[in-house]
User: Fold these one by one.
Assistant:
Number 1:
Amino acid sequence: MKLSLVIPAYNESEGVHQTATSVRSVLEYLRMKNDVEVVFVNDGSKDDTAALLQDEFKDDPKVRVVSHETNKGLGAAIRTGFQHATGDIIVTTDFDGTYPVTTIPQLLSRMTVDDADIVTASPYHPNGHVEGVPGYRLIFSFGASLLYRLLVSWRIHTWTALYRGYKRQVIENITFESDGFLAGTELLVYSLKAGYRVTEFPTTLHVRTFGQSSIKIARVTKQHMKFQLRLLKESIFGSPRSHRKPLVGEPS
């Protein structure tokens, strides 16, 4: 199996060495059985994140750093990462250690055991946990996830996690519009609506171990509310727009 890790980064110079050390550790384990590449997406960082990453992995030809000239947002970074990833399975995860990369083997195991197309980290699952995360962040994230459960699928507990594994067919067939933090939720919602199998990996969400988050709670909350309103209208009036990519020769 070929595996791709896609890791967006924005102004993360403070934690580059820590993240690089963790990534090297999990690569050593994963590469015992798999062909593994890493795509870091430097999303227009104003510090020396890209240079530090390139120096950390200068001896590993299967680790690449792809850079945006300007900051485009998390969704745009994910999209760029997907464009450069060549794996049969693509794992996206946070740069800041909120979900330890050392748990990637467990995440992949859950995908295999449950025969799923997507496996998503789920701290809000009954068997999941949250440690040290500020209350205002939990209110936003847990509240948003609860509304998506009501609007889309009650069996999925967490909708806002970046930490996920996707089979390649999902990435090739499903589109998402947002360039920001809404992107991962869009991708999960549209994948479920297209019939892909989703399972959860109950795990622990940790407080960021270094640096500062770039998320703007008010802005992201507004984006989720607009998206949720659209989903509600679609459930009432029908005719949702398909986000499946057209087949070759099929009108877009």
Number 2:
Amino acid sequence: MLITRDTVLRDCRFMNDYVSVLTEFIQRQPEDCIFVDLETTGFSKEKAMICLVGIITSDNGCLTLHQAALSSESDEKELISWFFDRIQDSGALIHFFGDRFDLPFLRFRCSLYAECAGSLTRLEEFQSVDLHKLLRPVGKLLGLSDLKQTSFEEFLREHDTQKAMDNRCIPPYRTWPGGRVCTTAMLSWLKTGQEKYLDCVFGHNAEDLTGMVCLAGLVSILNLGKEYLEVDEVTDTENTLEFHVRTKHVPAVSFEVRTEEISLCSKGERLTVSFPKEHEQVKLHYTDYHNYYYVPSEDMAIPRSLGKYLGKDLRCAASQKNCYTWINAEQLTCPGSSMAEQFIRQNLKYLLSLY
């Protein structure tokens, strides 16, 4: 028999916003996506088993946490069936590091039971969205020391754009221990039946899942290179061209990034992007540098379809760093200039590609 708990997540308006950012990015509806996290009795899928499964579902803006745990070691097959029963109408599984751990672990444990063979086939039909992979460039852009889920959460706590503490999605700190302590707690529950151990595993799993939902908001940073944006103001100084920009989705965190070629500052709803000028010109970078040649004499890249007519001594294969052309700054300062918006979007896409 399984031990189950269902919890409606209260005051989750901002969490719904974050879910919407992610589901738009992966081109899914919120109701079509499920956040999932497995707890196991060890790291070896051959020797350990799945001991708890947690999922978060979305239904008309209502986020609900569903959890199920073993009451004895003989319940793993029932636990796997419980999971597949609840995801059968979904199309995407969202997780953190699940492509490396949760899903391979689930596949192996599922293969041990003949009754689960059909579910194993069904698992391959889901779109797998690994936030660890997806947010890798964001973590590097933000200067995180590592790409652990808790590191992303800590940055969110310190730099989130929601000013009111009461509205924060992530609590100021984690309450439940994780890692080996959580594994030991589950083994103690199975051995002694004392609910204090089970509460530890349920609590840790709930914090992992709600944290995962909040991390979905960081996808708004990835969107900067491709979504709608509007230039509110342009400041043209002697050395820089600075744009104040509005975007469709406000980045979930405030941050600042400076490179030799682009500076990006996000504070609340204000996004500022600035570029150094040389001879009243600024660089427009391209990310598909494999399709370009760099022409040293002109200090610019040109498409290979044109560059092939130049002598080989006049061109070389473009690289990520030198795949650019020059734009006159005055062309980008006109109010409502679509050229300015395209210029910023393309350069933000380049900035993200560096990470």
